[in-house]
Amino acid sequence: xxxxxxxxxxxxxxxxxxxxxxxxxxxxxxxxxxxxxxxxxxxxxxxxxxxxxxxxxxxxxxxxxxxxxxxxxxxxxxxxxxxxxxxxxxxxxxxxxxxxxxxxxxxxxxxxxxxxxxxxxxxxxxxxxxxxxxxxxxxxxxxxxxxxxxxxxxxxxxxxxxxxxxxxxxxxxxxxxxxxxxxxxxxxxxxxxxxxxxxxxxxxxxxxxxxxxxxxxxxxxxxxxxxxxxxxxxxxxxxxxxxxxxxxxxxxxxxxxxxxxxxxxxxxxxxxxxxxxxxxxxxxxxxxxxxxxxxxxxxxxxxxxxxxxxxxxxxxxxxxxxxxxxxxxxxxxxxxxxxxxxxxxxxxxxxxxxxxxxxxxxxxxxxxxxxxxxxxxxxxxxxxxxxxxxxxxxxxxxxxxxxxxxxxxxxxxxxxxxxxxxxxxxxxxxxxxxxxxxxxx
Length: 441
Hints:
Protein name: Secretion system C-terminal sorting domain-containing protein
Number of helices: 4
InterPro entries: Secre_tail (IPR026444)
Domain Secretion system C-terminal sorting: 368-437
Organism: Rurimicrobium arvi
Helix content: under 10%
Pfam families: Por_Secre_tail (PF18962)
Structural class: mainly beta
């Protein structure tokens, strides 16, 4: 029944798309955008952004697409599909609706985009010579570093070690033929002499809501870290970015934001090592307390180990070495180990929520109807359950509604909530919980 809800229709995230080939440049970055119902794959080279209608928005695939472990992933799974080419993985992202994994790789000057399903049993190579897409011009020279999606916008960073940094924010729907306006960036670097460097780039970037504020977070060349309010990108002139923490030397490969165990975290893949940075460095506290710029906290010593005086809630290193990471959910990361294995790594101490199929099969007391829902949904609770705390979460982990219920049934108003998939979680007086996914059509 769920699959029928996501039948073929015009993709609301695209405006005036065309069918045909993408540009011929080397693809430098990959990202995903979704409103919970529609999904687009985002690719970029140094001239344009490409928003692709991949028609991959069936939530019933969540369970069969779950990753367990795929040894020697690149050589045994991707390489044969690419005709035996020797591949270097550039980036990977997970479709938040179907959990299909998209991998950007290259061999020499040739770029490949793979779609991975069913734990690697089904791998296809996307045909970029004929695809429905919107092309958006950068409006000038733009050396793409990273892309991240949030608040219905795609945020993109540009620049290199030569300090030619700039950022753009591209709002959905992605309009074919549009041109975006770049904003130069200036980054304070304490380990580069303690000053702002005009046009310094923001190499890695991710989006997250810390507390109540939407923020862009990441780590730059030689490892100063930042966390700035996403709304500041809407201004004009050079964007001055303060240093909120310092990972100390090396190169940040990718950053991912998660919220679990009632805390906010930034995960930094840094020179093959994986670190977790706590909320005290992400929520604006370093700026309000004056502990930024020359006073920013050093997180690693010169050997790359966490500074001994820091707690695990402030900074933690994970064992192992990794070549890529991607957001899976707020409880797990998808990681590609240096040894070649693609697998899920649990980062939370609490257990991940049930999948759609498991929630239908394994929860006995909680019932939701109708599902798909429209303007309201009825919740049937166990008899004599007492007061029940009911929370509704979006796919990115944001709590979008909360209410207290009692008795055997209650009704929740869904008016004004966007179409898409949500998780309803009920917490009983006994402390036990139940949860189910539902869809707003």
